[in-house]
Structures are given as structure tokens and as C-alpha cells.
């Protein structure tokens, strides 16, 4: 049995007596049938009922275990009632919406009567039906944690033009969810670009829809496609080239371009024989040789450019494989890729792109990403940030986010930070994410119509990477 017990602040308290079984994350409906209105609640915490004489009752039950009863297993009605009292719980619930005269509202000032209401457990599908939302491109991201077998079907179009964040501890399953979304988008004709720092997104089978780019092998950038401002920015920001050296290489660049002989090879040769300060010459030569050693800048025209990889009539995922690259080369590769990608999007020569950035703070500062977030909808860019460090993303990015997926966190500092930057209250957030099993996440925001859902994500076998390599075999670790 479920009954309205009380209200404290923004939380409703529901009395639960056996045989009902309600868990954290489940949904309840408080209805006033005569007035045709109801509240939709979500359970955020469960506590035992505290009543006068509870300790005495516990002691009585404990003592009864020592008494041998002839008719074991037979309980009187009074004993059964006592069992129900001692097993009763208080469900702490948060209002997620209201249903008034058949219409769903996010918030309401209405407080139900304690005696003229009925309380029942409802399914997520029932909530979706009263909200009246239709999925244009339905896709299942997993099943409800509280309803085994109940698929969580979302609308893929709500990811289009959106800023989405996937958070979780190492090994919690955040990359697996990202891969699930990538596969769904590609299967529906979308173009995805993945910045893959651990080479997790290469597929286990041959597919023209999934392309893995390895810097220096099938990924090279023509020197002629790199503008002077971009080239100077690389030397200055990534290779710490002094201002005096920048002025010299800028003059040499302009002179070669005017003569029509500008190339990476001629730039190196011109600097080597230029009448300039020896220290400046050495500084320039060292940095150009370092650039050359990366193997990604060439004077030749590649058969297929980076941008050409996205020009397909079908859905496609282009993964930038960065494992094994040094920090400076990783930043170089990403800067060249992003510059060409953004230029093509801005000019309108490329269809909208879904960008998945794994651990974005490792290769671009937050000012770059914040600027991109402000322009993403005009560019035709949909962003996904995937990280295990919540504080690596700025508060500005959290405030601009449309949907968020949070896997298990147990660190109090992480939970406290997330409660400040997300729309969920701290009690709900703490109750949900600190107790999530492996591969389960809290999904909320635009993708779930702002109704927090606890989701058990589906495993994928399509991708090679993403699995933890172990020395001991699994059979030794199951005990």
C-alpha cells in the first residue's frame, strides 16, 4: 500500500507498507480523481518508518526467535500487522511534473489533499504517454534500471544541434554509451567525427561507414591547405616560437608566396640561407624539423583530404586515432583537423557534423571549446564531451548543455560539483549516481524530456577498443 504521508520543503513523503516494492528512481502518481489532476513524483531516497515503540517492537521480535513455537510459520493477524509496521518505509520524492485536465505541466503550485488522493506506482511509458511526446527517429539506448526489459527509447533528432555531456569514472561505461550513439547516428545517415585518444572507435569488421585515420599514414595535410595565420599560430602556441622569430618567418613566407615558390621544403631552405640572426635561424629550423618529423605535413597533394572523408551519401564515422602520439603532436593534429573542419562548416561546403571529443581538456583549452559552443548551432555542429573528470569542463559548458549522461561517482567533491552545475538538486543527484551499478547511468535533459531516468546501457561488440586489458584471466577474478 502507498499513501501520502507528508511534505517537507520541495519533497513529498510517501508511506509504503508491504507488499509494495518501490526503489530509488521509480515514479509514483498522486491522483485526485474528482478534480482530474495528479502529480508525477520520482523517488530519490528511501528510509525506514520511525514510530514510537519501534525499538520495543524490534526487541520483542528478536526475543521471539529464542522461543520454540509448536505451530511454526503460523502468524495471527496482530502479528502480521506488526510485521507490516516494522517493515514500512518512507519514500522521499521529488515532483517531476503535474497532470491537470489531461495536460502535462513541468511545475505546479497545487498541493494534493492527504485524505482524498490515491498513490500508485507508474511506468516510464505511462509518463511518456501523458507527456504526449513523439519520437521522430526512435532509438533505444538501453533499458530502465527499475523496469528490466523496459527499453529507454529516445529521439535521435534531439541530439541534432545539441550540446551533450557524458560523464563517469574510468571503466563505468561512458565510452560504450558514446559508441552506441555514434552507431545509431551513422545508421541513420549522419556524419560523425570522433577525437579518439585511446583508439577505441575502430570497428572489428570491414566497413566503409567507419573510417579510422592514423596520422602520418592515411592522414596527411597539404602544406598549401594551411593558411599563414594557422601556421604561425602553431609555431607560436604549440612550439613556443618567440615573437622575433615569428616576424622573420612571416617576412620569408610573404616573399616566397609573392614569387610563387611557397612550399614547406622551400620555406626550410630559405630560412637556412637567409641573412638573419643565427639564434633566430636555429630556432626556426628546429621547429620546422619537428613539424616535419610529425609526418602529417607534406608538399604533395594527398589522394583524399581530411574533409573528403566526410563527403559521402551514406552515414559515416571518421575517427582520429591518437594513441601513441606525444602531447604536442596530438595538439598539432587536432588543431589542423579542427581548422579545416570548421572552415568547411562555416563556408557551407560540408553537411552538419556530430563531434565526439574524448577528454577534450587534454588537447584544447576551455576558451576554444567555449567559443565553439557559442557558434556550434550556426556552424551546423553537434557536440559531445566525454570525460571522467567533471571539473575539467567549465561551468559555462555545463550551463549550455542540452542533455547529460552521468555514470557512477562516489567522490563527494565530484558529486558536490555536479550538483552546482546541473539542473538536478543535490539530494537527487547523490541518491542516483553514487549507487549506480556498472554500465548504468543517469540520463536527463532534452533527450529524456527533462525527466531523470536511470538507464542500463547496452554493450556493443562492433568496436575493437574500449576493453580493459588484464593480466589475470576473468575466471580468476570472479571470486
In short:
The chain is an alpha/beta fold and 479 residues long. The protein has helices at 54-64, 77-87, 124-131, 174-187, 228-238, 243-259, 264-273, 278-293, 327-347, 366-379, 395-400, 412-421, 426-433, 474-477; strands at residues 2-8, 11-16, 27-32, 37-48, 89-100, 103-105, 118-122, 138-144, 151-155, 163-167, 191-196, 210-213, 221-222, 297-298, 316-321, 353-358, 381-387, 403-406, 440-445, 453-457. Strands 9-8-20-19-18-10-17-16-11-15-12 form an 11-stranded mixed beta sheet. Strands 1, 2, 3, 4, 5, 6 and 7 form a 7-stranded antiparallel beta sheet that branches. It has a two-stranded parallel ribbon with strand order 13-14.
What this model shows, in words?
- The structure is a single chain.
- By secondary structure, the chain is an alpha/beta fold.
- The protein folds into 3 domains: 2-49 and 88-131, Thrombin, subunit H; 151-213 and 305-477, 3-Layer(aba) Sandwich (Rossmann fold); 222-298, no CATH class.
- The chain is built from 14 helices and 20 strands.
- The protein has helices at residues 54-64, 77-87, 124-131, 174-187, 228-238, 243-259, 264-273, 278-293, 327-347, 366-379, 395-400, 412-421, 426-433, 474-477, and strands at 2-8, 11-16, 27-32, 37-48, 89-100, 103-105, 118-122, 138-144, 151-155, 163-167, 191-196, 210-213, 221-222, 297-298, 316-321, 353-358, 381-387, 403-406, 440-445, 453-457.
- Strands 9-8-20-19-18-10-17-16-11-15-12 form an 11-stranded mixed beta sheet. Strands 1, 2, 3, 4, 5, 6 and 7 form a 7-stranded antiparallel beta sheet that branches.
- A hairpin with a 2-residue loop joins strand 1 and strand 2.
- Helix 5 runs antiparallel to helix 6 (243-259) and helix 6 (243-259) crosses helix 8 (278-293).
- The longest helix has 21 residues, at 327-347.
- The protein is elongated.
- The protein starts with a strand and ends with a helix.
- Mean pLDDT is 86; it is low at 67-71.
Amino acid at each position: 500500500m502507498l499513501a501520502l504521508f507528508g511534505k517537507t520543503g520541495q519533497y513529498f513523503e510517501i508511506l509504503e507498507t508491504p507488499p509494495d516494492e518501490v526503489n530509488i528512481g521509480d515514479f509514483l502518481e498522486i491522483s485526485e480523481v474528482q478534480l482530474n489532476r495528479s502529480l508525477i513524483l520520482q523517488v530519490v531516497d528511501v528510509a525506514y518508518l520511525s514510530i514510537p515503540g519501534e525499538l520495543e517492537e524490534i526487541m520483542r521480535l528478536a526475543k521471539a526467535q529464542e522461543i520454540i513455537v509448536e505451530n511454526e510459520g503460523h502468524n495471527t493477524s496482530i502479528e502480521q500487522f506488526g510485521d507490516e509496521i516494522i517493515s514500512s518505509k518512507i519514500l522521499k520524492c521529488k515532483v517531476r511534473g503535474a497532470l491537470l485536465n489531461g495536460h502535462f505541466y513541468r511545475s505546479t503550485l497545487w498541493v494534493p489533499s492527504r485524505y482524498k488522493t490515491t498513490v500508485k506506482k507508474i511506468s516510464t511509458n505511462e509518463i511518456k504517454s501523458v507527456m504526449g511526446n513523439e519520437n521522430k527517429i526512435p532509438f533505444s539506448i538501453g533499458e530502465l534500471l527499475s523496469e528490466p526489459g523496459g527499453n529507454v527509447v529516445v529521439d535521435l533528432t534531439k541530439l541534432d544541434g545539441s550540446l551533450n555531456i557524458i560523464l563517469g569514472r574510468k571503466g563505468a561505461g561512458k565510452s560504450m554509451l558514446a559508441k552506441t550513439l555514434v552507431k545509431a547516428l551513422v545508421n541513420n545517415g549522419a556524419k560523425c567525427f570522433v577525437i579518439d585518444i585511446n583508439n577505441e572507435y575502430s570497428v572489428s569488421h570491414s566497413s566503409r561507414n567507419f573510417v579510422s585515420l592514423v596520422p602520418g599514414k592515411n592522414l596527411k595535410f597539404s602544406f598549401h591547405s594551411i593558411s599563414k595565420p594557422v601556421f604561425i599560430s602553431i609555431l607560436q602556441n604549440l612550439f613556443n616560437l618567440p615573437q622575433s622569430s615569428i616576424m622573420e618567418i612571416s617576412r620569408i613566407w610573404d616573399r616566397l608566396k609573392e614569387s610563387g615558390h611557397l612550399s614547406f621544403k622551400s620555406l626550410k631552405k630559405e630560412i637556412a640561407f637567409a641573412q638573419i640572426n643565427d639564434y633566430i635561424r636555429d630556432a626556426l629550423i628546429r621547429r620546422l624539423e619537428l613539424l616535419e618529423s610529425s609526418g602529417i605535413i607534406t608538399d604533395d597533394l594527398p589522394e583524399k583530404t581530411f574533409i573528403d572523408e566526410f563527403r559521402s551519401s551514406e552515414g559515416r564515422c571518421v575517427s582520429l586515432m591518437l594513441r601513441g602520439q606525444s602531447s604536442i603532436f596530438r595538439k598539432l593534429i587536432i588543431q589542423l583537423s579542427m581548422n579545416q573542419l570548421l572552415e568547411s562548416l562555416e563556408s557551407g561546403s560540408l553537411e552538419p557534423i556530430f563531434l565526439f571529443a574524448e577528454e577534450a581538456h587534454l588537447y584544447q583549452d576551455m576558451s576554444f571549446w567555449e567559443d565553439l559552443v557559442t557558434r556550434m548551432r550556426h556552424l551546423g555542429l553537434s557536440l559531445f564531451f566525454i570525460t571522467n573528470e567533471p571539473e575539467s569542463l567549465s561551468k559555462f559548458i555545463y550551463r549550455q548543455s542540452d542533455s547529460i549522461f552521468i555514470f557512477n561517482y562516489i567522490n563527494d567533491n565530484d558529486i558536490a560539483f555536479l550538483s552546482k552545475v546541473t539542473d538536478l538538486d543535490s539530494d537527487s543527484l547523490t541518491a542516483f549516481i553514487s549507487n549506480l551499478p556498472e554500465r548504468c547511468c543517469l540520463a536527463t535533459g532534452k533527450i529524456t524530456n527533462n525527466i531523470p531516468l536511470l538507464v542500463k546501457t547496452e554493450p556493443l561488440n562492433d568496436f575493437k577498443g574500449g576493453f580493459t586489458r588484464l593480466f589475470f584471466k576473468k575466471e580468476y577474478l570472479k571470486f
